Amino acid sequence: MISHRYQERLERCSHLMKSAGLDALLLTKPANMFYLTGDGRLCAYAMITQDGKVALGVPTTDVEDVRSLAHFDHIAGFEDEVGMIHSIAHHFQHFGIRQGAVGLEYTFLTQSMMGMLTHPHAKPAGVTVKDCTHLLSELRMVKEAEEIERIRAAAKVAEAGMAAAVEAVKPGVTESQVAAFAEYAMRQAGAEGFWRTYVSSGPRTNIAHGLPTHRKLEPGDLVMIDVHPIVNGYSADMCRTVCMGKPTAEQQAAYDLYLKAQQATIAKVKAGVRMVELEETLHGMLKEAGHGEHIFGPPIHGVGIEFEEAPLPPSHAFFHGEKEPPPLPANVVLSVGNCGLYTGPWGVRVEDTVVVGPEKPVVLTGYPRQLEKQV
User: Fold this and answer.
1) CA-CA distance, 19 to 202, in Å (whole number)?
2) Which of 7, 155, 203, 272 would you label with 181, given CA atoms 20 to 30 Å apart?
3) Angle CA 136–140–141, to nearest 5
4) Is the peptide bond before 313 cis (omega within 30 degrees of 0)?
5) Are 119 and 253 part of one and the same domain?
6) Which of 140, 174, 197 is the last residue before a domain boundary?
7) Is-contact 332 205, C-beta < 8 A?
């Protein structure tokens, strides 16, 4: 069953590679390797041929672990970076690839990593390189039923983390400690990891993504909490803003407006909608209410193996090396509410993970959306 799943993905990948004129892919991004082979780790690579063959290169220490987890045709262990270069050359030779084009993940690779993968002792001189970022994004964008179930499980874990974080919101507790409560609860609920947890409070809620600090919470603070657990390799994304005490009328009005805009946007998350329409819905309602100067960045992004991935709104996609996404089909998973309403003294934000349904959205994160903390 597992091998069948990866075989189907590799067949779709092969079709896209033929259309793009790629004879092979040389992948080092863990998310892409995980999707196509079942294992993604740093200091490793996967070579995928146009006919769907898979070669893996991993540290010698990891060979047996990967052998038990991954789908592959060939595997090689290496001791260091020089050994990695030589094992890449070996796999090019093994597959008989001396000419043509190999796809590399331009938006993931640093210049030094690019130098390693294109080193003359690794890549044959007759093989050129092309960017395969768009290909992998297209391949991973529409989620299989099992992927959605894994994201659903991650969403439940996010709810457990959020409940623990909100419970921890008390005077004198630091932002870092709130994050710790969230992360411990997520581990206990089944997360094997998480992307960075954001916690900001008071005036720090006016920044887009607040990394937690040692600032102590004070009575009357707004507290913005954003969690991204990983469960069985897949992520969910959820943000809530709560007030430690009774919010001011201005804070409540801003929160109600943002929540109304977010929910109106979620209502449009169904097959055929464009990312730009979703972005314009959320931003448009805030602008119409006079908050055009209080918004920043794209409010929508994809969710899957990574907590932020394709599809992205057109302007944001450009800066991530992505193409503008087509109208969204069913079973794309989105985060709605990625950026908030930033007034200057404070900010508010609500974010949920949502599946694009054939006729209506399916919201996976259900933690209560209310500003005043319930005691």
Assistant:
1) 51
2) 203
3) 115
4) no
5) no
6) 140
7) no
Q: Is the pLDDT of residue 298 over 60?
A: yes
List, in order, residues 6 or more apart from 334 with CB less than 8 Å away: 269, 278, 300, 301, 302, 303, 311, 328, 353, 354, 355, 356
Q: Would 371 be classed as within a structural domain?
A: no
> How many CB atoms are closer than 10 A to CB 110?
8
What count of Cα atoms within 13 Å lies in the side-chain half-sphere of residue 2?
10
Kindly give the residue spans of alpha helices, DSSP state H, lying in the chain: 2-20, 30-37, 63-69, 81-94, 111-117, 133-141, 145-168, 175-189, 249-266, 275-288, 314-319
At residue 209 the predicted structure's pLDDT band, cuts being 50, 70 and 90, is confident
In angstroms, the Cα distances linking 72 to 32, 67, 136 are 14, 8, 18
**pLDDT band at residue 316 under the 50/70/90 scheme:** low
Domain that holds residue 54: 2-140
Confidence of residue 313 (pLDDT cuts 50, 70, 90): confident
Confidence of residue 321 (pLDDT cuts 50, 70, 90): low
What is the torsion angle, in degrees rounded to the nearest 10, for the CA atoms of residue 273, residue 279, residue 281 and residue 284? Answer: -150
Q: Give the global pTM.
A: 0.94
Q: How far apart are CA 40 and CA 236, in angstroms?
A: 18
Q: Locate tokens 């030094």: which residue?
A: 112
CB-based contact 310:317 (threshold 8 Å): yes
Q: What distance in Å separates the CA atoms of residue 279 and residue 26, rounded to the nearest whole number? A: 34
Distance CA 86, CA 175 (A): 47
pLDDT value for 318: 58
Residue 285 and residue 242 share a domain: yes
User: Cβ(94)–Cβ(55) under 8 Å?
Assistant: yes
Task: Please report, rounded to a whole number, the percentage of residues in the chain having pLDDT higher than 70.
Answer: 97
Q: What is the CATH number of the domain that holds 74?
A: 3.40.350.10
Provide mean pLDDT across the span 1-14.
87
